[in-house]
Write a structure and sequence with these properties.
By secondary structure, this protein is mainly α. The chain has a domain of 48 residues. It contains 2 helices and 2 strands, in the order H-H-E-E. Strands 1-2 form a two-stranded antiparallel ribbon. The radius of gyration is 36 Å and the shape is elongated.
């Protein structure tokens, strides 16, 4: 260091070089400000895109289970006064009874109080209802 406070690197430099260095610093600061402005603009564009996406979300007015889908995937849905039914939704499935046809070889394994799902089924399936009754009614089907 020299006695007047200049560093070794800038002590013997030409004044034109020092002005160039200051100009480079100013350009760097301007680039930082531009990048900050670009970030703010990108955040505004993202916010606008999220808002537009929220307009595309169809929510159900009731909580329930979808029984039937009445539209195709990627089908355009237009809002109107006579809009079509998109889904058939059941509000409560607890009082439902399901009648099934069981193979004759498997009917002996079914009895009232049977567990809610087979032990070899995936664990992520929702809980079902236990078997309530097993009326044995023969049924013939021609093949």
């Amino acid at each position: 260091m020299q006695g007047n406070g200049q560093s070794y690197r800038t002590a013997g430099r030409h004044p034109g070089h020092q002005r160039a260095d200051k100009a480079n610093v100013a350009v760097g600061k301007a680039a930082i400000l531009q990048a900050r402005d670009d970030l703010v603009q990108a955040q505004a564009v993202l916010s606008c895109a999220k808002r537009n996406l929220s307009y595309c979300t169809i929510t159900s007015p009731v909580k329930g289970v979808i029984i039937d889908r009445r539209v195709n995937i990627r089908q355009t849905v237009v809002y109107s006064l006579n809009a079509p039914s998109l889904f058939l939704i059941a509000k409560d499935l607890t009082p439902i009874q399901i009648w099934v046809v069981v193979n004759e070889a498997d009917i002996g394994k079914i009895h009232p109080g049977l567990p809610r799902r087979p032990p070899d089924s995936p664990q992520n399936l929702p809980e079902g209802c236990p078997v309530g009754s097993c009326p044995r009614r023969p049924w013939c089907r021609s093949s």
